[in-house]
Description:
Layout: H1 4-18, E1 44-51, E2 79-82, H2 84-87, E3 96-100, E4 112-119, E5 131-135, H3 136-141, H4 148-152, E6 157-164, E7 174-177, E8 185-191, E9 199-206, E10 216-217, E11 219-222, E12 225-229, E13 238-244, E14 249-256, E15 265-267
Parallel strand pairs: 1-5, 2-4
Antiparallel strand pairs: 1-6, 2-5, 3-4, 3-6, 7-8, 7-15, 8-12, 9-10, 9-13, 11-12, 13-14
Amino acid sequence: MASFKQISFGALSLFCLLHPCFSTSNSNRKLFNYDDPSNPTSWTSGGATWYGSPYGYGSDGGACGYQGAVGKFPLNSMIAAGSPSLFKSGKGCGVCYQVRCTSNSECSGNTVTVVITDQCPGGPCLEEPAHFDLSGTAFGALAKPFNGDQLRNAGKIKIEYRRVPCNYKGTKLSFRMDAGANPWYLAVLIEYENGDGDLSLVEVMQGGNSYSNSWTCMTQSWGALWMLNSGSPLQGPFSFRLTSGSGKILVATNVVPAGWQPGTTYTSDVNF
């Protein structure tokens, strides 16, 4: 008899094969090779550096598009730019990792949780399989109390890391309409996904009817931004059906109103 886990994986595989948004060339196929954060693996060795202000949040948003949100609740500057194996061409945006260091005398050995919000495409980030270019705040948090500056002076350290579920403690999913969005070009940046942290599929329904079957597939534009080019004007309100990296599905109904505005953030009442 097949186990529940085997049945679940088989059902997920069938979903991917039959769903019109998935194709053999689509990067959404990562569902077949997924590191489940709900079951953290053993620690893996990697490296870490830091960038930006010593007490800051790296850069203003970075390659995931989160902009100034990285320095505010709930991210609170605890972020990282990931090497290519972590950033995954933007598919790694929003993923959470526990990080700890023991290789330096200033390391506390305690774990801190960081979120991938940016990419580190060169330099030390290519010298090892996994590298975290941490914000100054996150790098200092790895140190013993009051020793953050001393640890930052080391510049580069060896760390251990593992993927963990994201937990934004009551924060609901946010949908920020891109400044260039319009009725023919729907573009939205989705933030604060609990659990997996990442999305493998985003679908949108216009006109406020989330109970019909008229879901339309969106495409990852860059980072955490998803887009839909339409041949005719799209009518709000908009509902979004989100599929996480491990295949969990969530619907945010009518989260973007009919009179939506570019550059505006709309908060749902749901999260994974």
